[in-house]
Amino acid sequence: MKKMLFVVNPKAGKKVIKNRVYQIINIFSHAGYNVEYHPTKSANDAAEYVEKHGTDYDMIVCAGGDGTLDNTVTGLMGLRRKGLEIPPLGYIPCGSTNDFAKSLKISSDPVQAAKDIVRGTPCPIDVGIFGKENFIYVVAFGIFTDISYSTSQKLKNKLGHSAYIISAFKELARVKPVKLAARIDGKVISGEFLYGQITNSRSVGGFRAIGVKDMSFSDGKFECLFIKKPKNPLELAKILTAIATNKMNPKLMYKCNAKEVVIVGKEPIPWTKDGEYGGTFKKIKTTNGHKAISIVLNDKSAYNKGI
């Protein structure tokens, strides 16, 4: 019988997984898996357990938000660094944002997501290597970094993109532009920027990312976006409009694809990583781990879109 490790964050999101664990395990069992249920006990528990025991299983499934997914992938990347075989990963999104799941059209219904996992097949995806850590879909700095995560879901539901813009204006008063130089696959850009992101996703912070229509999850390249410091209120309005309408403004934004990005700030720069605090660095190197892991998908329409 095949073995599965089922990693669950019981505190994720609205705890939607809590009353469905038995039903989900039943689905996996009927598909021929001997399931080991592992509820996480601390922030890094998934990474530590997966790196230590991951090779004992034919598949690993994690249930939780973007942070739980990130932590599980960190464990898988630990196996990769040791040269060990990495089992495929199934994902049941249970967080409040679930950016990566939205990008890949993974069902937000935990039971349906479980059914899709047993019917699906492994698909290789890239993983970001951020200094000594990993990320599954985004690292970012600057003014918009935590707006999407701090803006209430109720306000988002009521006002849509307008909620994002309202929060951005509030944020503007306290955030200073970031002075930096970035080497992007050998090309250097420099200046003052309100925001920057390096991503492998179509959704960031619950909103569709700008300029990622034809992105691929497995092409070995990130989608990079840097938003310049506006010189006046009119330019700021143009930036916010571009974000709200998901349209690039090439005069105020710099977009590119890259395998490697090295950023050096005049001062240390705070980052977020997959929606969580990612550390503060004066210099940080980000590289693309091409097809580093495989994620199990039943609906491959979003995955195949950029191929």
From TrEMBL:
GO terms for molecular function: ATP binding; ATP-dependent diacylglycerol kinase activity; metal ion binding. Gene3D superfamilies: 2.60.200.40, Probable inorganic polyphosphate/atp-NAD kinase, domain 1. The keyword Nucleotide-binding applies. Belongs to the diacylglycerol/lipid kinase family. Pfam families: DAGK_cat, YegS_C. PROSITE patterns: DAGK. GO terms for cellular component: plasma membrane. It comes from the Bacteria. This is Lipid kinase, YegS/Rv2252/BmrU family. Keywords: ATP-binding, Kinase, Lipid biosynthesis, Lipid metabolism, Magnesium, Metal-binding, Nucleotide-binding, Phospholipid biosynthesis, Phospholipid metabolism, Transferase. Residues 1-134 form the DAGKc domain. InterPro entries: ATP-NAD_kinase_N, Diacylglycerol/lipid_kinase, Diacylglycerol_kinase_cat_dom, Lipid_Phosphate_FormReg, NAD/diacylglycerol_kinase_sf, YegS/DAGK_C. Its cofactor is Mg(2+). GO terms for biological process: phospholipid biosynthetic process.
